[in-house]
Amino acid sequence: MALSSIGSRIRERRRSFKLTQRDVAQVVGVSPSAVTQWEQDATIPSGESLLSLSKVLDCPPEWIMTGKDIPPAKEPGYLSANQFNVKEVPIISWVQAGQWTDSCPFGISEFPTIKSADNTVFATVKVSDCAFALKIKGESMTSTSGPLSIPDGSIVIVDPEYGDIHDVVGRIVVAQLGRTGEATIKKLVADGSIYYLMPLNPAFKTIEVNEDCRLIGVVKQITINF
């Protein structure tokens, strides 16, 4: 069968590996609807998305775009995330996050009830086996002026293996507040020997880090779906 369009090449190559559109979307870092649009020739993958897509489909980017440099035939079979240097992590609740580092000494494989197709995401950065993901709630991390903004509904990937508190000053962190037991996400800043959890939205209050506050992990990746 002639694969005369970009969309047809993407679709047939994906099917040859028995990958779903959702599988491809998660690894590439786009929404499933974006993959659908590519396969329908409504839009064209470009930039980092094209490079990631070529890795997922194990073919040159040039073949996707032009049909030249035909990739070798592959035996049908599901490709694991590990082949793309990514890690599948669970999306957990903010209450669970406060308990996660105590209950996850061996990684997600110890928690099969958490890991399912509907509540995991792929991290495309290096993270530990105990990494997890959270869905942002509220507007405290929606910046009104700065270059970094984490709007409501975003997914953040958090790694509890972050070293010492000094190592993550200036980074986005997740911390547990003793008075509620629930986790919060803020930017960690320091003023001398005093540490603060600062929201990116100035309309919200900065929180001083004290003995009732415990750092859970550092944010390694942010995913925003449109």
Automatic annotation (TrEMBL):
GO BP: DNA repair; regulation of DNA-templated transcription; SOS response
A single MF term (Gene Ontology): hydrolase activity
Record has Nucleus as a keyword: no
InterPro entries given in the database record: Cro/C1-type_HTH (IPR001387), Lambda_DNA-bd_dom_sf (IPR010982), LexA-like (IPR039418), LexA/Signal_pep-like_sf (IPR036286), LexA_repressor (IPR050077), Peptidase_S24_LexA (IPR006197), Peptidase_S24_S26A/B/C (IPR015927)
Keywords: Autocatalytic cleavage, DNA damage, DNA repair, Hydrolase, SOS response
A Pfam short name: HTH_3
Stretches assigned to the HTH cro/C1-type domain: 10-64
Family, as annotated: Belongs to the peptidase S24 family.
PANTHER family for this protein: LEXA REPRESSOR, LEXA REPRESSOR-RELATED
Record-given protein name: Repressor
Organism listed in the record: Xenorhabdus hominickii
Lineage of the species this protein comes from: Bacteria, Pseudomonadati, Pseudomonadota, Gammaproteobacteria, Enterobacterales
